[in-house]
Amino acid sequence: xxQWREATVERVRARWSGATELDVVLTGPTGRRLPALAYSxxxxxxxxxxxxxLNVAALELGLGTGGMALVVAIPDRLPADPxxxxxHIVKARYTPLQTVVLGVDEQESPHHEILxxxxxxxxxxxxxxxLHSAVPAILVGLREAEPRARVAYVMTDGGALPMAFSRTxxxxxDAGWLAGTITVGQxxxxxxxAVNVHTGLLAAALVLHADAAxxxxxxxxxxxxxxxxxxGVAAGETVNAAAVLGGRAIASLRxxxxxxxxxxxGISHHSLxxxxxxxxxxxxxxxxxxxxxxxxxxxxxxxxxxxxSAGRLSLREVETGGLVEALASSPVALCTMGRGLDQDEASFxxxxxxxxxxxxxxxx
Length: 364
Prior knowledge:
By secondary structure, the protein is of the alpha/beta class. It is built from 11 helices and 17 strands. It has helices spanning 40-43, 57-61, 112-116, 134-145, 167-174, 197-206, 234-244, 269-278, 292-308, 323-327, 345-359, and strands spanning 4-16, 19-26, 33-39, 51-55, 69-73, 89-91, 99-101, 125-128, 151-156, 180-184, 192-194, 212-217, 248-251, 255-256, 266-267, 283-288, 313-318. Strands 11-10-9-12-8-13 form a 6-stranded parallel β-sheet, sandwiched between helices. The protein is globular. The mean pLDDT is 93.
C-alpha cells in the first residue's frame, strides 16, 4: 500500500548522479519535516519552494535503507519529455514510475549483434555477493593487487531498483574504481541496461571489456527471518548463470562478528543456503583466515559448506594481512546493516578476501 503525502521542499541537502536528497515540510497542521529523495531522471530536479507528492510508506515503517520519503512527482513543474530513445525495454514494469530504457541486448542497441551471437564470457571471474555493502570491500581486495583491473558492477533487482539510490556506486565511479555499471532485471539506471543476469554478464565481458565482474543486489536487502524468504537467494542463481556462460564464479561469503541475530553470526545462513542449496554449479569459496575462536568458527562453517556441496564448492583459504588497512582507504564509506569497519570488521574483511582471491585469477 502507498501512503501519500503532500509537502513543500525546504532545502536541498545533497545531490549525486541521478538523485537529490531533500528536506521537505508536510502540508497541514503538523508541519512535520521529513528527509526525502527524488530521482531526477524520473521526476526532474526539485527546488526549494516546490510542491511535491510523496510516498512515505517505507519511512512510516521505520525501514533502515529505505527510510526516506520518495518524491513521486513535482506536479506544478513537470519535467520536459526526454529526447527520443530508440529503446523499448520497460523496467519497473506496470508501476506508476515505469521507465523506458535502451537495453544493451535489444535489437536497437549497437551491441545487439555481438551479444546475440555471444557464446560466453571465457572464464571471466564473477564475484558474487549477497549484500550491496560488500561491493566496495570486494573492490578494495581486488585492487590491492590489481589496481588497474577493469571491474564491472552488475546490479540485480533484489534491493533498490534505481541505480541512483546507491551513493556507494556514485562514489566508486567518481574514484575511477569501476569500468562501468549494468542494471539487470527490473533494476535500471546503470551505464548499460540488460534483461537479465546472463546478458548483463555478457555485456560486462564483451561490451565493457571487464577483467572481472561483481554481481550483487542494490541497497535494501529483503529478509523475512525464514530459510528461503530473502532476496539474497539470487546469489546462488548468479553462480549458476556464471557457470552456464563459462565464467568462474567466486562466492563471496556474508560474515559478521557483530550481528545480534545468531543466524547471521559467523557465516550467515544467507550464504549457507544460497551457495549450499541454490547454486548447482561449481564455485570458488574464498574464506578469510581470521584470528581467534571466531576465525576458527568461520573456517569450520566453510569446510562444512564445502563438504555438503558434493564437490561443487572449492575452499580457498585467504590470508587477511593488510586488508584492514586497505579497507580504511576505501573512497566510499563502508557500512553494513548500520555498522562500519570498526563495528564489524570481519564482514568487510571477508568480502575483501574474495576480491583478493579474484585478483590471483587475472592475467598479467
